[in-house]
Structure to design on (402 residues):
């Protein structure tokens, strides 16, 4: 945290990239303002409660990181600061309950399925509930899809070009099991053996994002045991999982598992980045032109720096036309649990994003992150334009099967 703070020279180059600054126009809702606030709290010059609303409004989107010429590691500061503050923070009872529910359900697919079913029963109560609960309920789909089981190993087809371990995700497993299914089969069809360790669990990134570092470490440790080390890469299909695993080195710093965690983080690779590097074996496409918008997930674009890779993959599919939208790098408001914690700002960011998408008249939206997909689906539906929203793995698998 000290290193990040010391590097900031207050130049303000990051301000234009920050979604909350662009929306709220307040210095303290900018990266520079938040760094100043966190510095003063850490130096005991400001009560934490005064800084808290501005830190809570930070999306953790990391758009400020590539925008910073001084190389301020804002993510290290934010993750560390939130973890520290959560230990001492007194939340109002309903707020504390909503947070506990998230911590106890989101990382566990089975619990999440049960909670989602119960949530749909209680959806009629949404208008009478506090914002966080109403937002949680509104994001649930009408019906959860059936599971799509995968074997422990899906062999490579043809000559083997690689061997990977596939992370299944947590919420994603319940909301969209077809994503991991499509990713595993696309990898296999492209000559990559996909190992799918059955003992794996949530990567912990969703907990790290909200400052629940101890719980994140507990469940992350399970993956250090469950994922084999003799693989070329550990593949993630959710942008948030990929960037969360990249933080394992930070999460386990000073712990006996530090080296193992750093190795794990080093091997983690997004599905689209891995396949773009490998190259599609055979690019089958669509019979007629399909116009698509690729929605950059913040944790893929800003946190992992993958802008070109998914576009390279999509460009290799015949008859797929990739459209550019305004402010493509701006967060859609999903950002982990942000649309639950800060529903009003999240809704405005989603509205702006959908406005940019609809302006170019696409046939569908493609993304590499389940959070963005759920957020955009909901906003497209409420705007009266329920376009299909697909994961890039689903699109590649669909194109391959044609
Ligand atoms: S661009 Fe970097 S150095 Fe400049 S104010 Fe923002 S965080 Fe600080
Ligand atoms: S992480 Fe995103 S919302 Fe937070 S300060 Fe940086 S750009 Fe702004």
């Amino acid at each position: 945290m000290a290193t990040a703070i010391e590097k900031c020279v207050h130049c303000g180059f990051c301000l234009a990239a920050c979604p909350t600054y662009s929306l709220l126009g307040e210095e303290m809702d900018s990266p520079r303002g938040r760094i100043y606030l966190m510095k003063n709290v850490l130096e005991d010059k400001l009560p934490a409660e005064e800084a808290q609303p501005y830190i809570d409004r930070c999306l953790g989107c990391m758009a400020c990181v590539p925008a910073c010429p001084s190389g301020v590691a804002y993510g290290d500061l934010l993750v560390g600061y939130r973890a520290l503050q959560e230990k001492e923070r007194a939340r109002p009872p309903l707020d504390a309950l909503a947070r506990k529910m998230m911590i106890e359900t989101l990382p566990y697919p089975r619990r999440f399925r049960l909670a989602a079913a119960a949530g749909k029963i209680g959806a009629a109560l949404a208008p009478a509930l506090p914002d966080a609960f109403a937002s949680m309920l509104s994001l649930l789909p009408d019906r959860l899809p059936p599971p799509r089981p995968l074997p422990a190993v899906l062999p490579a087809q043809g000559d083997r070009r690689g061997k990977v371990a596939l992370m299944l995700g947590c919420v994603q497993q319940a909301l969209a099991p077809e994503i991991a299914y499509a990713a595993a089969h696309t990898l296999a069809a492209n000559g990559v053996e996909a190992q799918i360790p059955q003992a794996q669990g949530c990567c912990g990134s969703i907990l790290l994002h909200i400052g629940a570092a101890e719980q994140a470490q507990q469940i992350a440790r399970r993956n250090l045991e469950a994922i084999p080390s003799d693989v070329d890469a550990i593949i993630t299909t959710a942008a948030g999982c990929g960037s969360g695993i990249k933080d394992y080195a930070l999460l386990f710093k000073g712990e006996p598992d530090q080296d193992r965690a750093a190795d794990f983080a080093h091997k983690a690779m997004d599905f689209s980045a891995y396949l773009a590097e490998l190259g599609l074996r055979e690019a089958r496409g669509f019979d007629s032109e399909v116009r698509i918008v690729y929605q950059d997930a913040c944790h893929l674009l800003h946190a992992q720096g993958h802008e070109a890779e998914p576009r390279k993959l999509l460009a290799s599919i015949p008859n797929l036309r990739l459209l550019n939208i305004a402010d493509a790098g701006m967060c859609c408001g999903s950002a982990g649990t942000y649309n639950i914690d800060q529903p009003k700002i999240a809704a405005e960011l989603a509205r702006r994003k959908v406005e940019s998408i609809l302006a170019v008249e696409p046939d569908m939206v493609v993304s590499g992150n389940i959070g963005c997909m759920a957020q955009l689906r909901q906003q497209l539906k409420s705007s009266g334009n329920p376009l299909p929203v697909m994961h890039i793995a689903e699109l590649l698998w669909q194109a391959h099967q044609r």
About this structure: The pocket of iron/sulfur cluster (ligand 1) is lined by residues 8-14, 31-32, 35, 64, 68, 70, 72 (CB under 6 Å). Residues 283-400 form a domain with the Rossmann fold fold (CATH 3.40.50.11810). The first helix runs from residue 2 to 7.
